[in-house]
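Quick note —
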Amino acid sequence: MKMHGLGNDFVVIDSRGREPLMTRELAAALGDRHHGVGFDQLAEITDHDSTDIGLRFWNSDGSKAAACGNATRCVSEFILSETGSDHLTLTTPRGLLEASRDRTMISVNMGQPQLVWDEIPLAEDIDPTHLPIEGDPMAVGMGNPHCVFFVDDAEAAPVDTLGPQIEHHSLFPERTNVEFAQIRARDDIRMRVWERGTGITLACGSGACATLVAAHARGLTDARVRMEVDGGWLIIEQREDGVWMTGPTMHVFDGVLTDAFLSSL
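Predicted structure written out below.
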């Protein structure tokens, strides 16, 4: 399946009822927008004994990702429509997550943020709220690492140049996603993102959650904001049980990989 949330696009493989088939090589081949299908992230749905489904994620370079919020929302909408339910539990490398539907909007609880240096993770024991990097960013873990910069103008932020530099910064042993956030009001953020293993994307769900956590921790916003990303709007809310993300999803088409493509790998 091809899906997207606010232009953050995904290939989704449904492996329920069989052995999971995704490999680094296949994910990278599918992620090639010229020779494959193209995606920001890939999600594979699997069977799970204790929750409704399992989910695993890959970046377009074939590397694994532990979390992908918009893909989780897209897959949740697919499963909720299939079952006719309004509530779903799923297991990801991030842990057990919950999703729910309210008419056309899908919400997912992305879990508690990770704010301890070795959980994010960082390479050394330093204060994540003020990293020793020019621009005074904050590090947040949402099952994957994030580095959030606060800027005066998100449109003018050097996403394409500073993003890849910070992704590979020595403070981040697993590389990092990089967010550039402009605080427009206590309930309004404009955010742009460089995603680890992918590059600039139109939206990043875990990045939106990390941005709110960082902004709220620094006292810049309330615990609930409307966040504008390049592809549209999300509602992000930090609650006692985790960080909730709400927004639209789109299921674009279903497809079948040909034997010729698979044999070429």
